[in-house]
Amino acid sequence: MSEILSPAATVILVRDNNKSLEVLLLQRNSNASFLPEHWVFPGGAVDEEDCPGGNELERARVAACREANEEAGVTVDHGRLVSFSHWTAPINFPRRFATWFFIAPLDSNTGIEIDNQEIQDFQWITPSAAIDLHYQGELSIMPPTFKSLFEIQTANNTMDLIEQCKTQPSFKYFPKIVEHEDNHVFLYNNDSGYDKADPSNTERLDRIIFENKIIHYQKS
């Protein structure tokens, strides 16, 4: 358990392909000490060299672009990043990150070059297809990735998604994790059980249930 928060940044790279919105997912190396073989968006901790003297958001933007270049071999202008969400890891995590999530559009012909060290594979995929593969047990992802995919799956194209993000404030998540009926339950701010960390309160749902490594999202 840690009260220390480390700044981090993630960028959701999107493109238009065959009249559909696709996102870039990277697969972490099978030998990784953290989330081996999980599919993630490019991202990582904010380094000291990332915009020294800048504020939290400015430094996160620079870090997100750096990670996109290091992990996927793409150059992203930090001025094109659009704020999407912010995640603060639960208090009972041994290491906690405060992570900005950004959206950045790429041209459909942009090449991807993974480092073959931290990252072993990549794929372009529609958000809904990624969710379906996860339900089938073929795509290992974590709740913030799942929730992001779920939220952007209704966008018709990159322009539609960018406009959606610009017209609404970045949602800030402070999930609480509790054990309930032998499963991990992630309660989000809008869930009626959130304040008292009580998953038995189901009046209003905004939660994820982790069951046999599969995420079940409930929202009402």
Spell out the key features of this protein.
alpha+beta, globular, 2 domains, 220 residues, 8-stranded mixed β-sheet
Question: Can I get a quick summary?
Answer:
The chain is of the alpha+beta class. The protein is built from 4 helices and 12 strands; from the N terminus they run ββββαβββαααβββββ. It has 2 domains: 165 residues, Nucleoside Triphosphate Pyrophosphohydrolase (Alpha-Beta Complex); 46 residues, no CATH class.
Explain what this protein looks like in three dimensions:
The chain is α+β, with helices and mostly antiparallel strands. The protein folds into two domains: 5-169, Nucleoside Triphosphate Pyrophosphohydrolase, CATH 3.90.79.10; 175-220, no CATH class. The two termini are 31 Å apart. The strands form two sheets. Strands 1, 2, 3, 4, 5, 6, 7 and 8 form an eight-stranded mixed β-sheet that branches. A four-stranded antiparallel β-sheet has the order 9-10-11-12, covered by helices on one side. It is globular, with a radius of gyration of 17 Å. It is 20% helix and 35% strand. α2 (127-135) packs across α3. It has four helices and twelve strands.
